[in-house]
């Protein structure tokens, strides 16, 4: 990053590209430079304003009145540009349009609803871990564990048909790429957009969903008049867009963290109740969702500077989650830390509605592994999967030592 003071306003400016492949591969140097530059930086390449410190990112996330989501949470500004798909009723909407869909989804994914799934998912995780370990103790964790487990349990919980589930990850990958600029990563997924979007739309219909599950519960809310029949499939779509890729990369993050911090794995084995803390600490430390945009609804003051009405603001969630102004020793993965307050799931009214689902999946998988596995180590070089929004993994070769 090159950060220079603007001659007329005194606002730090940078010509860095946060979506450059090298930055996506290793975003930490840019994030640190942005934090040090000031509370806000102007990114001249895209003419957007950036926040990388925890205090400013947190404040913007909870202030939906001045930092709106309804104009899109990507670089595209819906005030002037047509979205590539109908906007999300949760992620890309503000009150009052946001309220009823959010209430319904919060109820569908409530802790009470998830309690009914807990025993089944814990049993599913035990079976998966047994299957994996019976085939050997060296493997790539991404295809056999961190992708396999969410794809094993989450589509069933939604009530999706079996056919076509392989479309979930590429659809989510493209959706999160589309929040960034129209670069080569977006072009990579473009040839399949119509096919993937068509499949997703087809399985969000009432008749495609199982009679029990998250999807059926959303449609039941439309029968009660809590949402309209037109809103129901878009709310189901939100589950499919944000409910798989993010969890896959969160699980990858926590396994990578344990492979590179063996003392923390020993701590988890001694105290399995730390499984949920471990997942949240991994989400803080690795931040699977790295960035989201907001749009200023008026001239908004941030520190000593003003974001003009209609301007895009890029919030660096990953940078905020490693801000030393908020966290002690932020670059370490530490189960003695209280990671609550991290912004890896967002904050405020748009905070991730499915975060408890992800935590339950992680708890099930980590608990199953901790019962069987004495230690975890890397068995070879890891590889990133580049995405404009997600901190993603292509490959994490692991070697497990089993009791």
TrEMBL record:
Protein name, entry field: Cytochrome P450
Record key words, sorted: Heme, Iron, Metal-binding, Monooxygenase, Oxidoreductase
GO molecular function: heme binding; iron ion binding; monooxygenase activity; oxidoreductase activity, acting on paired donors, with incorporation or reduction of molecular oxygen
Iron in keyword set: yes
Cross-referenced Gene3D superfamilies: Cytochrome P450
PANTHER family cross-referenced by the UniProt entry: CYTOCHROME P450 YJIB-RELATED, P450, PUTATIVE (EUROFUNG)-RELATED
Domain of life of the organism encoding this protein: Bacteria
Stretches assigned to coiled coil: none
Family named by the database record: Belongs to the cytochrome P450 family.
PROSITE patterns referenced in this protein's UniProt entry, alphabetically: CYTOCHROME_P450 (PS00086)
